[in-house]
Amino acid sequence: MTDKSYVIPPPPQATIAVAGSDKVFPVRRIWCVGRNYVEHIKEMGQDERLPPFYFAKPADAIAPDGATVPYPSLTKDMHHEVELVVALKSGGRNIPVDKANDCIWGYAVGVDLTRRDLQIASRDLKRPWEIGKAFDHSAPCGALKPVSETGYLTKGKITLKCNGTLRQDGDLNQMIWNVPEIISNLSEMVELAPGDIIMTGTPSGVAATVAGDKLECAVEGVGTLIVTIGPALK
Ligand code: MN
């Protein structure tokens, strides 16, 4: 036997469901764009002219459509950020913008759940953002739809309702950096690979969400995602 023997059982592979299929997409890395819609940058008090930047979440932060996500520890101000998720079937380094769409397997609707109070405290202390962004269950993601069904997305409504009230209402055409530009730019920083997903930033309207909330998210032409916020874990 040539396989390595693990000293503990290997952790399960994180996956995202594929719409209309019993197959799943294996997740390697989750990259997130820190700012990509002008109105959201203004509501966060930032300078819209600065280029976007990236942070990461662990692959096992994925939570599926219909999940009840426990209210996380330490925070008193968890926010929702609805985002277009792009899933990659291929990668590379220094991918040209005009080749970047070739890397896309499909799209989904995701939520970048954020412990806003901890994120801002980290930012103000010039510390990393993980404690605010990369916590357990912080990346709910709906079923992926293959690009063969959606085409390459450049516009379409992106919305989030909380308990039936519309809170986030944007359009993919409001992105400052479009999806191929993000893939190309990110590939200058790290080598992208099959299984990587990118959360492409949120439109304005981010707000606090609490236990008992039902978040209904949608991206036109892609699908929907429903997440319920559950009580805090004891
Ligand atoms: Mn975000």
What does this molecule look like?
The model has no long low-confidence stretch (mean pLDDT 95). This protein has 234 residues and is of the alpha+beta class. The protein has one domain: Fumarylacetoacetate hydrolase, domain 2 (Alpha-Beta Complex). Strand 1 and strand 2 form a beta hairpin. The chain contains six helices and 18 strands. The chain has a six-stranded mixed sheet. The structure holds manganese (II) ion. Manganese (II) ion (MN) binds next to loops.
User: Could you state the CATH homologous superfamily?
Assistant: Fumarylacetoacetase-like, C-terminal domain
What is the C-alpha radius of gyration, as a whole number of Å?
A: 17 Å
Low-confidence stretches: none
Ligand names: manganese (II) ion
The description of the largest β-sheet is:
6 strands, mixed
In CATH, the topology is named Fumarylacetoacetate hydrolase, domain 2
Shape annotation: globular
Number of domains: 1
Roughly what percent helix? 10-25%
Care to count the β-strands?
18
Q: List the secondary-structure elements in sequence, H or E.
A: EEEHEEEEEHEEHHEEHEEHEEEE
